[in-house]
Design a protein that fits this description.
Layout (H helix, E strand, L loop, with lengths): L2 H18 L1 H5 L7 H22 L3 H9 L1 H26 L3 H23 L5 H21 L4 H20 L5 H11 L1 H14 L9 H8 L1 H16 L4 H7 L2 H13 L6 H29 L7
Helix pairs in contact: 1-12, 1-14, 3-5, 3-9, 3-10, 3-12, 4-9, 5-8, 5-9, 6-7, 6-8, 6-14, 6-15, 7-15
Length: 303
């Protein structure tokens, strides 16, 4: 394996393992209102982003992106999509629904495929259709077993799928740090509204919950930025197919944390639903891998 590819693989593994431990990190902020925590997250992320821009002398790159109205407004939309994603994720973790957050990220590849069909005119191969239907059946089983829709998981999957769809419009024209900075600043008004809502409805609770909560809220910007930048470094060094397989690492570790550390309930209906979703991902991944192998396979000799 070439040095670049090896480094890219380590960056990808670091990013996905880091993301998987965010629910553990959020245990520091137990008792803090979810909306309030997201407000502090955006504020601390802006500080981290601007500090990184200054350290890397990225002001010119940032200014170049801002000159493009198309790229700027696309990143503004992306910022709001990822804000919805993170808000839902944080609320899910703080309300002891870690397993449902992992479901959302397991479903995300399937949602991305459906979005590609609906909005980009892409066509699915038969095995991909089977995977999508099987994933939908898995969610349906959970709805029947629980008597309610797994909203946390569905919103996470839909919002992150929307984020990916929006980011596809930007492509490689925007560097990772400039994109992260603009997206985070764009989320500031909505996050301030969340802080105001938390203040009016129950007061700000970070300081009242002790030093661990204060440190957790203050460090949220670093927790947000570090894996995103590592992920960006990985995508520049390794094939997208490697990323596609690595992305299952985060929800798998999150699932294990929710089931065996937090001891969230796993009745038979939830197990069946998760198994169907996992099976759909196996089919989806097998189709991608098989297509890649056929593409690189040399043609048979003539004569």
């Amino acid at each position: 394996m070439a040095d670049q590819a090896r480094a890219g693989l380590w960056y990808a593994l670091f990013a996905y393992v880091f993301w998987a431990f965010v629910p553990v990190y959020l245990q520091l902020t137990k008792g803090v209102d979810g909306f309030e925590l997201i407000g502090w997250r955006v504020l601390s992320s802006i500080v981290v982003a601007l500090a990184l821009v200054a350290m890397t002398r990225g002001w010119l790159r940032l200014r170049t992106v801002l000159r493009s109205r198309r790229d700027t407004w696309t990143l503004v939309l992306a910022g709001h999509a990822v804000l919805i994603n993170w808000t839902t994720f944080v609320i899910g973790v703080l309300t002891d629904r870690v397993l449902e957050t992992s479901l959302g990220y397991f479903l995300n590849p399937l949602v991305s495929v459906v979005f590609a069909v609906l909005f980009l005119g892409e066509r699915l191969r038969p095995l991909q259709w089977v995977a999508v239907v099987l994933g939908a059946v898995g969610v349906g089983v959970m709805v029947v077993a629980y008597g309610e829709v797994p909203w946390i998981g569905l919103i996470i999957a839909l919002s992150f799928g929307t984020y990916g769809l929006i980011k596809k419009r930007v492509g490689g024209s925007v560097d990772a740090l400039s994109g992260f900075t603009i997206e985070t600043v764009a989320a500031l008004p909505a996050s301030m509204a969340m802080l105001a809502f938390a203040l009016v409805t129950g007061g700000l609770t970070v300081a009242a919950n002790g030093a661990a909560s204060v440190l957790g809220a203050a460090g949220f910007g670093v927790v947000t930025a570090v894996p995103l930048l590592a992920f960006a470094a990985a995508t520049r060094r390794i094939p997208l197919s490697w990323i596609a397989f690595a992305q299952y690492l985060t929800p798998t570790l999150t699932f294990l944390f929710g089931a065996f550390v937090m001891h969230e309930p796993m009745p038979s209906g939830r197990w069946v639903g998760f198994i169907l979703v996992w099976l759909s991902l196996v089919l989806f991944s097998a189709d991608l891998l098989g297509r890649r192998v056929r593409r690189v396979q040399p043609a048979p000799p003539l004569g």
